[in-house]
Amino acid sequence: MLDFFRRIIYSIFLMKKVLIISYYWPPAGGPGSQRIVKFTKYLNDYRWNSVILTTENGEFPYMDRLLCTEVPENIDVFRSKSWEPFTLYKKMTDRGKSEALPVGLLTLDKKSVREKTSHWIRSNVFVPDARVGWVPGAVRVGMKLIQQQKVDLIFTSSPPHSSQLIGYFLKKKTGLPWVVDLRDPWTDIRYYEFLNRSIPTRRADAWMEGKVLKTADRIITVSDALSNAFKEKLRGYDRDKVHVIMNGYDDADYEAIGKKKSACYTILHAGNCLMHQNPEVLWKSLSQMIREDREFEKELEIHFIGKVHPAILETVDHYDLGKHLRAKGFIPHMEIVREIMNASTLLMVVPDIKRNEGIVTGKLFEYIGSGNPVLVIGPPSGNAGIIISKFANSTICDYNDVDKCTAYIRKTYIEWKNGQLSESSVSLRKPYSRRIQTKQLVELFNSVT
Fold first, then answer.
1. Are the CB atoms for 377 and 385 separated by under 8 Å?
2. What is the pTM of this model?
3. How far apart (Å, rounded) are the C-alpha atoms in residues 327 and 306?
4. Domains and CATH numbers, the chain
5. 434: confidence class by pLDDT, cuts 50, 70, 90
6. 408 pLDDT band (50/70/90 cuts)?
């Protein structure tokens, strides 16, 4: 009886501690870093303290030093060294040491023998990915932290999926509960079909993926389709341990930013727009509306934040829309939120590829958090389409449905012009808030501790 009351007192008054292992952490920017920072921001509210293990010398496509200001003061952050093959890659391809490698590096056109050779090495030697050199040092540091910090649970987030190998080894050595966060597919990731991976490489990668999935106590993913894909790989094992915790938006990001009507009707795409994300249906609709309404032509602006594939820019010029385009590179997250709040229509394009039903980018939820109209171009039956169909001021448009796209742009343009741009209800947005999602994560933590 005494032990029973001790356990009750411990669960009520004492904090538990989670070791969070993530390659991406401020000052690294991007959705992976934001997801982990937002989790740690609210974990404390549910009696969980966080200890962060990240890389000391990582290779990041974006830097966002403003994100450092969102890290809670009571968070202990530890870093371990990583051997990164990108230094060798830069030498082989005549890139500068300090030059950030582009997003989608493996899918870029390969123009030289040295680039082809380096891409083959990257695809076949470094398994599961080029960050595997981080694993040995991170395991050593992780073991010390588990002992020194009295850790109750291990939480690993990927990509890079090498991070999951760190969790796997720590789980095997300590027996601690282990929760795996898989933000992207592993062996089914869409760009693998463009790579010349050997059969032994593919088998080794699949073996690692299987070990992680079967050993983890809980697995979380960011979409229903991705969850179902991982459940299929667990045939004969416990499929019920796979759960969905989507990306989301943080109410606090929007509280300090007031909305104001922009001087122009602004269509905004926040985030990289890569090769298979060319919204030609939108360009056709805008071109048609310009022919019909010269006032619309004067008031239209198209904003892109992030990397834009050259083929998309060529298509924009083909439809004579170049003068309306305002392309920016990467900007800090809080500046992106400000741009989202002031946009007239927010654009998301699901890549037009096979098995795209489960693609739900992090930007969609930040769009939702703003309450502004959202236009998603992609498969209506996909997870992004199902989510956005819940909001009356937003819509999902198939890749070739010019009539629907034109009608939606015309509707939001008229609303903007009249100063009556419709806003989604707070109650419908709330389930996608970071605080609610952290609560869901804590419920999983508690279920295994």
1. no
2. 0.87
3. 8
4. 2-83+130-248+434-448 (3.40.50.2000), 251-431 (3.40.50.2000)
5. very high
6. very high
